[in-house]
Automatic annotation (TrEMBL), chains A, B:
The keyword Oxidoreductase applies. Residues 425-606 form the Phenol hydroxylase-like C-terminal dimerisation domain. This is FAD-binding domain-containing protein. GO terms for molecular function: FAD binding; oxidoreductase activity, acting on paired donors, with incorporation or reduction of molecular oxygen, NAD(P)H as one donor, and incorporation of one atom of oxygen. InterPro entries: FAD-bd, FAD/NAD-bd_sf, Phe_hydrox_C_dim_dom, PHOX_C_sf, RIFMO-like, Thioredoxin-like_sf. Pfam families: FAD_binding_3, Phe_hydrox_dim. The lineage of its organism: Eukaryota, Fungi, Dikarya, Basidiomycota, Agaricomycotina. It comes from Antrodiella citrinella.
Length: 608, 608
């Protein structure tokens, strides 16, 4: 009897943060998705837990940040402790935890991975999509027929999966024919291995015993005054990082020394079976002296890890099978990057897959996934190596002048801030990122996410964060910074723009599927005098789509938007925001031809 | 066969905004409640729809504002139109719709009454409480046994109710024995009538035909530039007010003249059966000239009303049967007060009933309901009379120098702002409002709601709006503004306060049920140096209960709190916030005796 067969647009293998993010995003866009995972249920405790500022913005763009922020802890303050003269530790200083000043939410959110996974699974369930589990893939075949591979509507990938809890062992396999497959199956990715994709880089060289860390999740009992801050302790007895968590919980990352762990004499590797959470707490107590650290109740979760830093040599095979998340890059957990990098891989891929599947975009668009995300992963590894070395290094003291000085540590902390927050991600020029007119918006870098800023809606003076008006709904957002429309000559430029984008040889609103675009107009005029009805109708498809660069009624928020982006408040500019919230191209009001040429590289003309 | 009998702590008659607010609040506090309503289902369209800034704060204190703000429209801007030289209208100016600058949400929210009712009914359902409908009361008996009336645990009220849709007409009545009854059954209140409570005031004198208004809810088709603002039009053809609503809807209040309506010659009253929505739109079209106003689709809802302004002579009978909302006060809808006054009546009553029922408070506490809310209702009527006259008056023109000048209208609009927003509500001295030490917090008036302000949590530098830390959970909030605790002599004062409130003859934390109080400490120290662990433990029952008067890490919010309240940042003060969010008493750090005396008037000592 042959196994049952099924067809799906995208098969996602792995239901961790990367896989769930992709499945949720694709399902939300109306793509047919199947997602399988080998675990029988979602993560209950521990694992990844840090959500960086940019990731909060991204989750918000899918309507998921409200719940995250309701459930998560927030880390605003970082504290630094170093050896004191009497052999204990003392606070050297406090500083903002997030140094990326443009972050809309200038803090890290912490919440256990299971709750993060629920953020996606609950709305997925409402859309009728459940994770098929416990289910593992057992075979994957990718067609070599080039014609088939060129057709986005073909099913060139055949994956055999096995349902592990099937009562009928005879009938526990299923053959899935997929247009695309995403391997989001973690650091030991089965998909990566079966594709023969190798990892560059290697695990940190042994036997640098300093680079072995223990992790415990506890509810602390302590007189340590920074127990609710993100605290980096460099003590004479090793380093420790405190990550406060939801409720009263905290996580401790505890550096282990040779004294603390047993090594296998042959391999130099730590014997994890001989270390337990009590032993980790004993090490923590030494590091914390003269402060007390203990816990109440049970230890929620614990682990021991060795830092490994690697990047996959490629992120896709023929743009038909992709890998994302830990399957493509692994690094140390202390910088709080893992879950963020994973989800942002999927965020980058979802809209591209969606438009290819809808017939709106060329297959070539998919090549930009590896281009953009592999570069990012390599930068991440470089950052992580430097950061880990600083953090694991011995502190500088009287007796150890080669140790890490607090000033160097703090400087690195602040320098790396833009990167580690995710805010600094800057995609290089490519088919979807055109730097030509960067000078028109010097403060809004092309290839970075649209800067958060509050504008006032012209029709009713209601303040809106612009990021909230540009959700991850797969549309390109055409932001017409119309300049000073109260001047007749500028109004004429704007009226010409309206005609050019909607008619004629560069009229991209009609050349491509109209649903691909969402048009917004932002005037530099003031709320007391501007009438939204003065804006040409093409540029205000709804009364709500005219914004002003002004404050709200009591100047509590808003204003200075043109300046923030560096756009001339008299003459304006057009900013095209990609569906993932990153700026794709900037053009002058007369630059419609350039925008059309940009779009023509990866979009297909509307058949209608 | 005698009808079934039941017992309940509080029977609420009427499930409009006042009744639902009370039933929700009581159920949330664990009080047993029954609520009946004569309507077979909740309001589907029209009716009241304006939520004032203070009401948003109150809803937030019950955790209900988030949903309201997600669903509602916001009115930030008001616009004013007056006669133009050519016989039409023109804009005279725009101004903030809300003039109460301390409002946490400085706008009015608009949402149809049915959605407001759902705000309460959905969480009520989760608590197992449904509105019993369609059900009407048919008899009410209040015991005259003084002993019984003194005992809060007795059931002195017997109400017979009839279930209107009962299949078995023989068995359609029920006798409810209640400890307390709340009549929230509207302007034609059955409860008020059966109690023999009269209304003071009278309907606006006829035949002032100007005071007849029509109302239509439409989706407009219009070139009027302020169609999404709260707009007051004084035209040569009558007055009109635009209230933008959720989605694309708006409401028009349209002044009707003698030409527009037919009057009954005998009574001078309008024959409502001879006016329809089309006729109202025809009047609106004349008022809007030279702008167009029409609608798309159907007219959602419409009505005609005559302004009536009345206050009930008493708000309770023997503090056992209360009335709230329209049952005690009616006024014109254009000032957007009705639903707000109603809900705030219930807000005032809920915590008092709860503590009497729990045995924490004396029966006398209930007298403060009428004291506080009847005074407010009278002020509301006074405001409404002046406002209605200004709004219904003819505009001042060349030919009519006695008409209402725009400057007078605007001035009244701004002067009345504090009152109409609900922010200015200021309860007079009483058993629960003690003005003695007003000089310690000159900007935080005793008897007004605690001013919203952002403080920083000491343990983790996370900013919190203080109103969110003081929910309507029936507790008294003891806010210890501890001053500059880094100075030893001030720390000593704070330490003494901690001892005094928890031990000895004034130690109210132990004299009364400990659960009545929630203690917060607010230091004037800065986040870089204050350790929450330095505050005496009595004053920090949890690590989260120590706040700082400082900005967040990027100075986007917070700071200046002592100044905002007018409290000395060196020496501090204790602010006691009532369970409804209004300040009850302020005292110096050495004033624990005074606080204990204040509490002793209405609280019962703990039996334990």
């Amino acid at each position: 009897m042959s196994p049952p067969e099924s067809k799906v647009d995208v098969l996602v293998i792995g239901a961790g943060p990367a896989g769930l993010f992709a499945a949720h995003g694709l399902a939300r866009a109306g793509v047919s998705v199947k997602i399988v995972d080998q675990r029988p249920c979602r993560v209950a405790a521990g694992q990844a837990d840090g959500i960086q500022p940019r990731t909060i913005e991204v989750l918000q763009s899918y309507g998921l940040a409200e719940r995250l922020l309701r459930e998560a802890n927030q880390m605003h303050m970082a504290a630094f402790y170093n050896p004191s003269a009497d052999g204990g530790i003392e606070r050297t200083g406090r500083a903002p935890d997030v140094t990326a000043t443009t972050a809309r939410w200038p803090f890290e959110a912490t919440l256990h991975q299971g709750a993060i996974e629920a953020l996606f699974m609950d709305p997925m369930r409402e859309m009728g999509l459940e994770v098929d589990r416990p289910t593992v893939p057992t075979a994957l075949e990718l067609s070599e027929d080039e014609e088939l591979l060129k057709d986005p509507q073909s099913y060139p990938v055949k994956v055999t999966v096995k349902h592990l809890d099937h009562a009928d062992a005879q009938n526990d396999t299923e053959v899935v024919h997929a247009k695309f497959v995403l391997g989001a199956d973690g650091a030991h990715s089965w998909v990566r291995k079966i594709l023969g994709v190798t990892l560059d880089g290697e695990q940190t060289v042994y036997p640098v015993i300093d680079y072995i860390w223990g992790v415990v999740d506890i509810i602390p009992s302590s007189d340590f005054p920074d127990i609710r801050n993100k605290t980096a302790i460099h003590s004479p007895n090793g380093s420790c990082m405190i990550i406060p968590r939801e409720g009263d919980k905290i996580r401790l990352y505890i550096q282990l020394s040779e004294k603390d762990v047993e090594k296998d004499i042959q391999t130099g590797r730590v014997d994890k079976s001989k270390v337990g959470p009590q032993q980790l707490m004993e090490v923590a107590k030494k590091i914390f002296k003269p402060f007390n650290i203990d816990y109440v109740g049970e230890i929620d979760w614990w682990t021991i890890y060795v830092i490994g830093q690697r990047v996959a040599s490629q992120f896709s095979v023929k743009e038909r099978v992709f890998i994302a998340g830990d399957a493509c890059h692994t690094h140390s957990p202390k910088a709080g990057q893992g879950m963020n990098a994973s989800m942002n891989d999927s965020h980058n891929l979802v809209w591209k897959l969606t438009h290819v599947l809808r017939g709106n975009a060329e297959m070539s668009l998919l090549k930009t996934y590896e281009f953009e995300r592999r570069k990012y992963a390599q930068d991440l590894i470089d950052f992580d190596k430097q950061w880990s070395a600083l953090f694991s290094g011995k502190p500088r003291t009287e007796d150890n002048q080669d140790g890490v000085a607090h000033e160097d540590f703090l400087k690195a902390f602040q320098t790396f801030g833009a990167f580690s927050s995710g805010i600094g991600v800057h995609y290089a020029p490519s088919a979807i990122t055109n730097y030509t007119h960067q000078s028109l918006s010097p403060n809004q870098l092309i290839g970075t996410r649209i800067l958060p800023h509050v504008f006032i809606r012209a029709a009713d003076a209601r303040p809106y964060e612009i990021q909230d008006l540009l959700p991850s709904d797969t549309k390109f957002k055409i932001l017409v910074f119309a300049g000073n429309t109260t001047k007749p000559e500028q109004w004429k430029r704007v009226d010409n723009l309206a005609k050019e984008i909607s008619t004629g040889e560069h009229g991209f609103l009609q050349i491509y599927n109209r649903d691909l675009f969402d048009v917004w107009t932002i005037s530099s005029g003031k709320k007391e005098v501007v009438d939204y009805t003065d804006i040409p109708e093409i540029l205000r498809p709804h009364w709500s789509h005219v914004l002003l660069d002004d404050t709200d009624m009591y100047a509590r928020t808003g204003g200075g938007g043109y300046e923030r982006y560096g756009i001339d408040p008299e003459r304006g500019a057009v900013v095209v925001v990609r569906p993932d919230g990153y700026v794709g191209i900037v053009a002058p009001l007369e630059g419609v031809k350039g925008i059309q040429e940009y779009l023509s590289v990866f979009l297909k003309k509307s058949s209608s």
